[in-house]
Predict the 3D structure of the following.
Amino acid sequence: MKFLLSITITLSIVAQSFVPAAAQKPTKTRALSEEQRIFHVLNRLGFGARPGDVERVKAMGLENYVNQQLTPEKITDTAAENRVKDLSVLNMTTAELYEKFPQPGQLLRQLQQRGMLPADLAEARENRVKGGANSSPEMPKNESMTAPPPANPLENEKYRKILEDYYRENGLQRPQRIMAELQASRILRAVYSERQLQEVMVDFWTNHFNVFFGKGADRWLLPAYDRDTIRPHAMTKFPTLLQATAQSPAMLFYLDNFQSVNPNMPQRPRAPQQQRRGINENYARELMELHTLGVDGGYTQKDVQEVARCFTGWTIFQPRGGAAAVNAMRGEAGRRNAGTFFFNTRTHDDGEKTVLGHRIPSGGGIKDGLMVLDILARHPSTAKFIATKLVRYFVADNPPQSLVDHVAATFTKTDGDIRESLKTIFFSKEFNSTEAYRVKIKRPFELVVSAIRTLGAETNGGPGTHQWIARLGEPLYGFQTPNGYSDAAESWVNTGGLLERMNFGIALAGNRVQGTKVDLSKFTSADKNQAKVMDETLKTILAGEISATSRETLLKQLDPSDPVTKVVGLILGTPEFQRQ
C-alpha cells in the first residue's frame, strides 16, 4: 500500500515538474512580493534558506544582501572554516598527497623494484595473484580479458589485512580518503558558509571546467584544483580563471595534454609496438567547444590542430607522483614539485601557427598557449556562450535572449568580469520576475544541501550525504565526460529519479542519513489538527506556497502516529521543494 501511495505522489511530481511553475497557469507578468524575492535570492544565489535567513535578509535589505554576496572576500566565514579545519587533505600539496595516500598496486611495485617489499606482504600478494585475484583492487580487469581462476576469499582477506597493517605501520592511508574529504568539504561549505554565492559559483565552474576523479592521477590532483584553481578565481575575471584551469595539473591530466608533444622532436628509441609520441588534441577541442566559444563558436578542425600545437609542452612534473611514498619512507627529501605544472621547452612545437585568423609567430614558447587563451577569452562567441550558461543557470532553462545579450555586453565591456556579469543578472527584470520564480529544478547536490539547510540540520558532510547525492545521480567529481553535469530539468526529471528524491526526504526527516541529525521539534505543535500542523510546516519550508494538488496529496498521506516526520519528509519530495 505504501509503495502505491509513493508512486501516486511521484507521478504527481513528474506531471508537474516538467511544466515550469510560472507556466502552469497563464497569468500576466507581475512583480514578486518582498518575501518571494527574498526566497528567490536565497535559492538562486545560495543553497536555500536556513531558519531565520528570511528575517535576517529582510532586516538588512535585499539589495544590500545581494551586494554583500558579490564580495565574498568581505564576509567573515568562521563557521564554515571551523567545519572543514580537520580535513587534512585540503591543506596538503599534491606531492604530500602522493606520499601519504599511495595507490596500493603502484606502491607494491615500487617497493619490489627497490628490494623493500616485506616478505609477508610479498607472499600474500603472490598467493592472491595465484588465487586469481586482481593485485590492484582499484583497477578491475577489462571484461574482454580471459577470466582468471576463481579467487580464494581467504587469500583476499589475508592480503587486505597485511596491506592495512603495512599502511598503518608506515603512516600511510588509502587514497579513497582524498575524495571523501574533498566531497565533505564541498558539502560542509555549501551548508554552512555565509559566502553562499561563492559556493554556488564554485559549483558552477567545477561543472563548466569538469574533471573526472576516476581518471588516473586526478584523484590526487583534484584537491589542488578546487583549492588553487576554482575557488580563488570563481568571482574574478574569466581570462584569469581560464588560464588557471589551462595550467591546472588536474585538467592537463584529465584531457591528456600533459602527454602532448611536438612529434618532430628527438625521441628515445622505442619498442616496435610502442607508438611514437605526438600531439593530443583533446584539450584543444574541449577548450574551444566547452570552455570558451561553444560548439557553434566559429572554429574549425584546423583551429583545433593549431591550438593543440600551441599547447605542446604544457605538462606536469611527475604526474603520477614519482614514487613519492617510497622515497619518503627511505628518508629522501620529497620532491615538493611532484604533480605541478611546468612548461617543457624541449617538447614544444615552436613553429608559426594561425588560430581563428590570428598569426602566432614562431619562437614564442609558452607565450603561444597564453596568446590562444587571450584570443579565446575575449572572443565574442565566448561572451555569448558564457552569458547563455550563466543566465540558464540562474534564471531559466530557456534563457531570455534579451538578458543573454545584456550579460554578454557586460562580459565584453568589463573584460570578462564574472562579478559584474552576475550583477547584471541579479538586478535584471528577467531575474526578478514571476516567470523565473521556482522554475529551476534542483540538481541532487542542490537538493541535498538545501534540504539540510531548510531543516536547520547538523551534518558532518560524510559518506552518508555522499551516497545520497550519488544515489540521486550526481556523485561529486563523478561525471566522466568533459561537459559536466547538466542543470536543465530534462536531465533530472524522471520517475525513478524523483522517487529517490522523495525517499531521500523521508530518510532525512526520519534521521536515517548517516552523519546528519535533524531536530523536528520546531515543527511540533500542541494542536492535534494534522492539517494545521502540515500548513505550519509548509509555511516554514515553502513559505506556504504549494499547489492545491500537492496539498491534497499530502493530506492523504498523514500518519496520525507520527504526523511531523512523515509530513516533513513528504514536503521535501513535493514538486515545489524540487524547484528553486
